[in-house]
Design brief:
Largest sheet: 7 strands, mixed
Strand content: 15-25%
Number of strands: 13
Strand order of the largest sheet: 3-2-1-4-9-6-12
Helix content: 40-55%
Number of domains: 2
Order of helices and strands: EHEHEHEEHEEEEEEEEHHH
CATH class of the largest domain: Alpha Beta
CATH topology of the largest domain: Spore Coat Polysaccharide Biosynthesis Protein SpsA, Chain A
Distance between the termini: 57 Å
């Protein structure tokens, strides 16, 4: 079982080196870059990664492009702000020597926010299907929250060890990512699904998002970071619904 580690990037000069170092045990490391203007590609190449440049087509399509560029059929997909933990590395090494394997493996992801590991509020275990045989599955084409869709007859199991995820650097970056990425993409997904909303629903959904994350999913146990996570989740929900209203207005030809 040979493993190709694949990473997609866009201006990830600060992150890419640590991401690559965490998977240098893999049989190859593939980086697909979306025309970065910083030193992402140079750093990746200096660490021995094979680098391809592909104009940004969207998260799912870019990850599928990277998957297709790999030499080996077993794919380990990683984002530039993620790291493979030492325990996960060891667990995958055992699989590489095993004769009886599943076709794909879900991996728990432990996110750090404000320098603190987050284990509540719906952020953990945050299972991600990141290790898979590409002959049995592919990326699902989703606009946001892309994932690997395995064949109906594929066997999927769960690993115990974690991918470490270093999220936004601070609250201003969190706000920016919501405004520029998550809310617009979320609204676009809802629009394509034919969903409708209203100002009242935007407010109610936002309120429920906060209550669910902070109280029902015990986000308060993560202290102030847990509060910020619930707050920004609520803000994302409200902004997503508001943008959907605007999309539907434009779609119906109204100003």
């Amino acid at each position: 079982m040979k493993v190709s580690a694949v990473i997609i990037t866009l201006n990830e000069e600060k992150n890419i080196a640590d991401a690559i170092r965490s998977v240098m045990w893999a049989d190859e490391v593939i980086v697909v870059d979306s025309e970065s203007t910083d030193r992402t590609r140079e750093v990746a190449e200096s660490l021995g990664a094979t680098v391809f440049v592909n104009k940004w087509p969207g998260f799912s399509d870019q990850k599928q492009f990277a998957t297709d560029k790999a030499t080996h059929d077993w794919i380990l997909s990683l984002d530039a702000d993620e790291r493979v933990s030492e325990n996960l590395k060891s667990e995958i090494a055992v699989l590489q020597g095993a004769s009886n394997r599943a076709d794909g493996y879900k991996v728990p992801r432990l996110s750090f926010y404000m320098d603190r590991p987050i284990r509540h509020g719906g952020w953990y275990p945050d299972l991600q299907l990141r290790l898979f045989d590409r002959r049995k599955g592919q990326w699902n084409g989703a606009v946001i929250h892309e994932s690997v869709k395995m064949d109906s007859n594929a066997k999927v199991e769960r690993l115990k060890s974690e991918i470490i995820h270093y999220t936004v650097e601070d609250t201003s970056q969190h706000e920016q990512m919501i405004a520029e990425r998550y809310a617009p993409l979320g609204a676009q997904k809802m629009y394509e699904e034919g969903r409708t909303t209203s100002p009242a629903k935007a407010l109610l959904s936002s309120w429920f998002t906060f209550v669910r994350g902070y109280f029902l999913k015990l986000g308060f146990l993560d202290g102030y970071p847990g509060f910020c996570i619930a707050y920004f989740a609520a803000r994302n929900t409200r902004l997503k619904h508001t943008m959907l209203i605007e999309l539907r207005r434009r779609g119906s030809g109204r100003r």
